[in-house]
Amino acid sequence: MFNTRKGPTPLEQFILDYVWAHPGCTAEQCREDLAGERDLKDSTIRTVLRNLEEKGYVTHTVQGRTFIYSPAASRRNVAVEAAKQVIDRFCNGSVEDLLVGLVDNQVLEPKQLQRLAEKIAARKGRKQ
Questions:
Q1: Alpha helices, DSSP H only, in the chain?
Q2: Sign of CA dihedral 107, 111, 115, 121
Q3: Separation of alpha carbons 2 and 82, rounded Å
Q4: Euclidean distance between CA atoms 19 and 42, whole angstroms
C-alpha cells in the first residue's frame, strides 16, 4: 500500500509545495512565481521537476512542446507515507509508541488525542 520512495530534498519540497498549490503549472510559471522567494535557473527548476517525477511526487502531460506538471499524490497521502516510514523506522511499526511519544513530549496534548480517537470512532461507525 505504501511506497518506500525517497523523500523530497528541501529544494524539491519547496517546488513540490508550489505544484500542490498550482496544479497544471509549467516549469516557467514555477520559476517566475518563485523568483521572489528564491532565484532559480530554468534548468534547475526543470531538473528538480524531473527528479520529483522520478520519485513519483509529480506527473506531467505535454501540450505542444510544454510540460504541464501536476501532483501525483495529495499532500495528505504523502504525509501519511512519511509518517508510516517514521513509525516503521523509529517505533518498530507501533503507532501507539509514536502517539505516546507525541503526548510525552508535549507535541500532542491529551485533549487532541481524545478528539482524534472520537474522529476515528466516528469514521469506523460510518464504514460499518
A1: 10-21, 27-34, 42-55, 75-90, 95-104, 110-127
A2: positive
A3: 9
A4: 15
Domain housing 114? 94-128
Question: Which H or E run contains 58?
Answer: strand 58-63
15, 52 Cβ separation under 8 angstroms: yes
SS3 4: coil
Length of the chain: 128
Cα separations (Å) of 64 from 61, 67, 68, 92? 10, 8, 10, 49
Supply the pTM of this predicted model. 0.78
Residue identified by cell 518498530 is 92
Do 52 and 102 fall within a single domain? Answer: no
**Residues 57 and 42 both lie in one domain:** yes
Q: How many domains does the chain have?
A: 2
What is the tens place of the pLDDT at every residue in 22-41? 999 999 999 999 999 999 99
User: pLDDT, tens digit, for every residue of 94-107?
Assistant: 999 998 898 899 99
